[in-house]
Amino acid sequence: MPERTTLPRGTEVEVPVEISVAADARAGTYEIPVSFGGESRTVSVRAFPRTAGPDLARGAKASSSGDETKDFPASAANDGDPATRWSSPAEDGAWWQVELAEPVRLGQVVLRWQDAYAARYRVQTSADGRTWRTAATVRDGRGGREAVRMDARDTRYLRVQGDERATRFGYSLWSVEAYAVDEGRRPRG
Questions:
Q1: Which of 17, 25, 53, 183 is such that its CA lies 20 to 30 A from the CA of 107?
Q2: How far is it, in rounded angstroms, from Cα 52 to Cα 183?
């Protein structure tokens, strides 16, 4: 890469920026001013707490808005078997949920999508299974393995709420894992 380059006026350039969050930073959103070539912008950086411990969703009671067939039940997404999966009927608003053994401060959900994945979805949490709050929104789902970070206190129920399918098929999850916040450590970005 040359030390100095002159570009025609109006040319858009992407410049990689690396931002690190200090180990002792508190969880939250930080506004970072960035200046380059006479232009200034503010970048919002969200620091999430560290997670640790076992997969809390494994073997917990799973349910869904509907299963594509009896061969793809909700329980297949958290049974620990990489060869089984849950699949919904072909509708955008389908959901999968799990009741955890006890309330936790939820810090991360890891989804492993089959080829039929969500382009847009929300991770929702609830203390009672009736009143839901959105802990994270994914607007650009890419399928495969997606790790979604959050800081959701008093989570007894976890729901993956589909908003828009990426394919003509329903949603299909090989697995859903849930991890609690490590209360003994500081957040990371």
A1: 17
A2: 9
83 in any annotated domain: yes
DSSP secondary structure letter of residue 48: B
pLDDT at 184 over 80: no
Residues ≥6 apart with Cβ < 8 Å to 176:
57, 77, 78, 96, 98, 109, 110, 111, 112, 158, 160
Q: Is residue 164 part of a domain?
A: yes
Residue 10 DSSP code: T
Helices H / strands E in the chain, number of each:
0, 10
- The predicted structure's pLDDT at residue 101: 96
User: Stretch 36-48: mean pLDDT, rounded?
Assistant: 83
Task: Report how far apart the first and last C-alpha atoms of the chain are (Å, whole number).
Answer: 29
Among 94, 104, 158, which residue's Cα sits nearest to residue 126? 158
Distance CA 115, CA 142 (A): 10
Q: Is the Cβ–Cβ distance between 86 and 64 less than 8 Å?
A: yes
What's the domain count of the chain? 1
22 in any annotated domain: no
Query: Which structure tokens are listed for 45?
Result: 């950086």
Residue 14 token pair:
């992407």
Residue 187 resides in a domain: no
Q: Answer yes or no: is pLDDT of 79 > 90.
A: yes
